[in-house]
C-alpha cells in the first residue's frame, strides 16, 4: 500500500530485543520549527488514517478531494479538539507506517458510533508481514504537552490493556471491524481468534507507544546541527529510561508472570503543541467547506 513521502526526521533510533527507542522531529527551516509543514503532512495521511480499506482502494483523481473531505469530517466532529487524542493517533499511524512499513488493519476512528465520542481501545491496529505470517501491532499514544504526565498516563493504560479480559474483548471488536476486502483479513482473524492462545499472539505482537511533548530543547533551537542533536539526545534518553522503568513497575505490580512483550517507544518532541493543534484545526475546518 503506497503512502505519502516521508517528512519526519529520525533524530534517534536505538534497537534492542525488547523494542526500539525512536524519536522523530519535524525539523527546522530558516530558523523556525516546521509547524505548518508538519500540519500539511498530517493532512496528507487523513484518508488512509480514517477510511476503510475498500474506500481507499477506490480513490482516484475524480474523487480524491471528496474522499479527503470525508476523512476530515470523520476526524473532526467537535470543537473540543484540544482535549481529544485523534491528532496523536494520526501521528502514531504516520510514524509506524513511515519507519516500520506497517499495514493498517483497522481504521478504528471510522467506527465511531456518535459525534464527539472518543474511540476506546488501542489507538492503532496495524500488522507487519513476517515469514508468511502476521505480526500484530497494537499502539498507544498520548498527545500531550507535559512528558511526565504522558509517561504516567500511558504506563497505566498499557498495563490495563494487557489484562486478559480486556485483550479478549478488544480482539473481538477488532475482528468485527476488519474490512473483508483487505488482503490480510483472514490471517488476522485467525490470529485474534478466541481459540488462539494469548501466548501465541504476543510472540507475534508489538506495542508501539508514541508520546508528544513540548520540548525544552526544540523550544530554544532553530537548526538541526550537532549541538541540537547532542542536546535532544540527552533529553530523549532520560525520557526513554523513565518510561520503561514506569511500565516495568506497573507491570510487576499487576502480573506475576512475564509477558513476551515488545514495545517500541516513539517520542515526537514539539515546539508548542497548542500551535500545532491550531494549524491542524485550520486545515480541518477548511476541508469542511
UniProtKB/TrEMBL annotation:
This is Anti-bacteriophage protein A/HamA C-terminal domain-containing protein. It comes from the Bacteria. Residues 7-284 form the Anti-bacteriophage protein A/HamA C-terminal domain.
Amino acid at each position: 500500500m503506497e503512502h505519502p513521502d516521508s517528512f519526519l526526521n529520525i533524530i534517534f533510533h536505538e534497537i534492542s530485543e525488547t523494542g526500539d527507542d525512536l524519536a522523530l522531529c519535524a525539523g527546522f527551516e530558516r530558523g523556525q520549527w516546521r509547524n505548518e509543514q508538519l500540519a500539511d503532512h498530517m493532512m496528507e495521511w487523513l484518508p488512509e488514517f480514517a477510511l476503510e480499506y475498500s474506500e481507499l482502494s477506490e480513490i482516484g483523481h475524480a474523487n480524491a478531494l471528496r474522499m479527503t473531505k470525508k476523512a476530515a469530517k470523520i476526524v473532526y466532529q467537535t470543537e473540543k479538539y484540544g482535549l481529544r487524542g485523534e491528532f496523536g493517533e494520526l501521528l502514531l499511524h504516520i510514524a509506524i507506517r513511515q519507519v516500520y512499513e506497517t499495514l493498517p488493519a483497522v481504521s478504528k476512528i471510522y467506527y465511531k458510533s456518535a459525534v464527539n465520542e472518543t474511540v476506546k481501545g488501542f489507538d492503532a491496529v496495524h500488522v507487519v508481514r513476517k515469514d508468511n505470517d502476521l505480526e500484530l501491532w497494537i499502539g498507544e499514544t498520548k498527545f500531550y504537552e507535559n512528558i511526565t504526565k504522558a509517561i504516567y498516563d500511558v504506563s497505566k493504560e498499557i498495563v490495563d490493556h494487557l489484562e486478559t479480559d480486556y485483550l479478549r474483548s478488544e480482539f473481538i471488536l477488532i475482528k468485527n471491524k476488519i474490512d473483508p476486502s483487505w488482503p490480510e483479513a483472514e490471517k488476522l482473524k485467525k490470529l485474534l481468534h478466541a481459540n488462539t492462545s494469548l501466548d501465541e499472539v504476543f510472540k507475534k505482537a508489538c506495542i508501539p507507544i508514541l508520546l508528544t511533548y513540548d520540548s525544552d530543547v526544540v523550544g530554544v533551537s532553530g537548526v538541526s546541527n550537532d549541538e541540537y542533536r547532542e542536546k535532544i539526545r540527552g533529553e530523549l534518553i532520560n525520557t526513554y529510561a523513565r518510561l520503561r522503568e514506569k511500565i516495568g513497575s506497573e507491570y510487576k505490580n499487576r502480573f506475576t508472570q512475564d509477558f513476551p512483550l515488545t514495545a517500541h517507544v516513539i517520542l515526537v518532541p514539539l515546539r508548542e503543541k497548542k500551535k500545532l493543534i491550531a494549524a491542524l484545526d485550520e486545515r480541518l475546518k477548511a476541508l469542511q467547506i
